[in-house]
Write a structure and sequence with these properties.
Elements: H1 5-23, H2 33-40, H3 44-56, E1 60-62, E2 69-71, H4 74-85, H5 88-103, E3 106-112, E4 118-124, E5 139-140, H6 146-153, H7 157-164, H8 179-192, E6 195-198, E7 205-213, E8 219-228, H9 229-232, H10 236-253
Antiparallel strand pairs: 1-2, 3-4, 3-8, 4-5, 6-7, 7-8
Helix pairs in contact: 1-3, 2-3, 5-10, 6-8
Length: 258
């Protein structure tokens, strides 16, 4: 169906208005009509007219002294509505499926509880799973599992110290029970962007995990791959990069662009 001339003109104006909004950046929060005209290759009259419409809608503001424009407060309200609708489980689920299919191991989505434990809020079992060790709703102590290490690694120091003060119980011979050694490992987690736990919670069970960030860069959840040590030990490095890449993709969908 052929579009009418007025429809084409309206769509063009919408596209140009979007281009104006996207021209602003953290490095250039304020732009003038001339700058926008040159950058977008549009007539000054067109840019001025579109800015006037955006200003009426609260999407841009004008500095009365410099006469330059900046993004308006109405965008904050709109962004807030979008962010409230974002459910990390809903966003992450197709990525959990994909990672489980690729790795052929169990994949979990994990968050930190208010009392300093970790809990799986979603998961996809391995097609080769013998028994379920990472069921949804299971609470665990963070120091002995890969997802817990990731969540601890990105906590403010005071909050981390409160959790460590509760003690680091031993579950196997490989469980880290020394706070200083754990702190060193958490530093390594931040440097490499993922955590590994090999038989620290249970003999024969290993896992690798990576952080999921929201639009502000805050770590809000973790995605992990776990399975029998005899299978994972040979591919820990490969799984670490795969898990990290998947976590980055989920973070991007949540608005993180760092």
């Amino acid at each position: 169906m052929k579009k009418k001339k007025g429809q084409v003109s309206t769509l063009r104006s919408v596209d140009r208005a979007i281009a104006i909004l996207k021209a602003f950046s953290e490095e250039e929060p304020e732009l003038g009509v001339t700058e926008l005209s040159q950058r977008l290759e549009l007539p000054k009259s067109t840019v001025y007219r579109l800015l006037a419409s955006l200003q009426r809608g609260g999407l841009v503001d004008q500095d009365p002294e410099t006469e330059k424009y900046r993004l308006g407060i109405e965008l904050v309200r709109l962004a807030g509505l979008v962010l409230k609708q974002i459910d990390v489980r809903q966003i992450a689920r197709p990525y959990l499926h994909s990672l489980a299919e690729t790795s052929e191991e169990t994949v979990n989505l994990t968050v930190l509880t208010g009392d300093g434990k970790v809990i799986n809020i979603d998961g996809i079992p391995s097609p080769r799973m013998v028994r379920n060790v990472g069921w949804i709703g299971r609470e665990m102590l963070p120091h002995c599992i890969s997802s817990g290490k990731v969540l601890l690694a990105y906590l403010p120091q005071q909050q981390l110290e409160r959790i460590l003060a509760k003690g680091l119980p031993r579950f196997t011979d490989k469980t880290i029970t020394d706070p200083v050694r754990l702190q060193e490992e958490l530093n390594q987690v931040r440097q490499q962007g993922y955590a590994v736990a090999q038989e620290e919670l249970e003999v024969g069970l290993s896992a690798v995990a990576a952080p999921i960030r929201n639009h502000e860069g805050t770590v809000i959840a973790v995605i992990s791959v776990s399975g029998p040590s005899f299978r994972l030990s040979e591919k820990i490095s490969e799984l670490a990069q795969l898990t990290k890449r998947t976590a980055d993709e989920i973070s991007y969908q949540l608005g993180y662009t760092g």
